[in-house]
Amino acid sequence: MRQLLLRPGAEELNYEIRGIVKKARLIEELGYDITWENIGDPIQKNNTIPVWMKEIVSDLVQDDHSYGYADSKGMLATRRFLADLNNEKGGVKIGAEDVLFFNGLGDGIAKLYQFLTPTARIIGPSPAYSTHSSAEAAHANSAPLTYKLDPDNNWYPDMEDLYNKVKYNTSVVGILIINPDNPTGMVYPREVLDRFVEIAREFNLLLIADEIYQNITYNGYEAISLAEILGDDLPGISLKGISKEFPWPGSRCGWMEFYNKHTSEEFTKLCTTLENAKMIEVCSTTLPQLAIPKIMSHPAYKEYRVTANAAIGTRSRIMEEVLGNVAGIKFNKTKGAFYNTVIFDEGVLDEDQFLQVDDKAIKVHLAKWLEEKDMPNDKRFVYNLLASEKICVVPVSSFCSDLRGFRVTLLEENEDVFRNTFERLASSIKAYLNSSKKVVLEK
């Protein structure tokens, strides 16, 4: 081309959660069924939308107003409803003008990083959710800036690591919290959240909380929102949506809640810029915005979420039962969202391990996949698992982490199918690790 097309940093964009699907489709084309554990799509995993919820959407479709533009910031009645929900928590108070809708939370995340000056960095957790880490890296034309989550301490943040990275890197302007966390399934206790606030206050930072799983907790755990712990002297942004909670991922409907805009002139300018960017687009999708107050205020909604959360909690216990005694791996109890990250013990993976693959065509595909240069050993396992057992998971190395393992989902509604998937996974882990001549498992 006459000139370069891509701006610096654009090549940092990566989404292995979707990327591995291309490989799985090649196996599907050979006539095999794939067990999809790569992405958090409840609909794909046999989730049944309640009739009353469908009726609300169906009735809205009959209303001509659902076919028109929304306000640029989002439907006013819906923004008022969401502001009231936040204010019921007794923390930071907001109004309708502090709520801004996007076409899915991914759209909002992209916009957020897009308008930051390239020298301004948002430090986020590792393992990192790819939408955040890729967008942050692309905007800064650099590797993502992360703090460590500790698998040996319930996946809680290494606060010393975070503090030092903030203290000695003056380009850090904000801290990202994902609570409940994707990909680990961790839920932050109050003392951890309070420490985030202390660090942000000491260094005058913006706190951003991805809280899209805020209402998906179970087994006795509950998530505490950013608004409840932020106080009135720090700027904050909460990122929320309906993709997981209703669930309605195909609606592409998410929003930001701005907290304490008065505390910083720079933060006020950022909020205004995000609002102006949405005005240029005209608006976000109307129908799901209209549905939010009707669904979330429906008499059946609270019990619906309680039942759905309990079912995820049951599946988390099945996972613990099946994988708990497998040598060579470790994981923590899942407390929120619907993912778990399984880590291989240090030293149990090597480049010569394999799983048996009988289909010659799949063998050809696998051999080609394994030619990838400098492939992390957890990715090697993931490719072998896909080729041998037709289970599609995501390697932890693709979540901007030095750890080696894989992420699974807890979404399959049919418990027999769910148990069978994890039994096959357990057998595959054992066979893969035992295929090595170099590794001796101790338990």
Summed up:
This protein has helices at residues 16-28, 51-61, 76-87, 105-114, 130-140, 159-167, 190-203, 226-229, 265-281, 286-296, 301-323, 360-369, 377-389, 415-434; strands at 35-36, 99-102, 121-126, 146-150, 156-157, 172-178, 206-210, 236-241, 254-259, 329-330, 339-344, 391-392, 394-395, 405-409. The chain is α/β, with parallel strands linked by helices. Strand 10 (329-330) and strand 11 (339-344) form a beta hairpin.
List keywords for this structure.
alpha/beta; eight-stranded mixed β-sheet; four-stranded antiparallel β-sheet; globular
Structural class: alpha/beta
Q: List unreliable stretches of 5+ residues.
A: 9-14
Major β-sheet profile: 8 strands, mixed
Which percent band covers the strand fraction? Answer: 5-15%
Contiguous helical run count: 14
Percent range of helical residues: 40-55%
Name the overall outline: globular
The side-by-side strand order for the widest beta sheet comes to: 2-9-8-7-6-3-4-5
Taken in chain order, the helices and strands follow as HEHHEHEHEEHEHEHEEHHHEEHHEEEH
Distance between the termini: 58 Å
Number of strands: 14
Can you put this structure into words, describing what you see?
The structure is a single chain. By secondary structure, the protein is an alpha/beta fold. It is built from 14 helices and 14 strands. α2 packs across α10, α3 packs across α10 and α4 packs parallel to α5. The chain is globular and about 60 Å long. About 1% of the residues have low confidence.
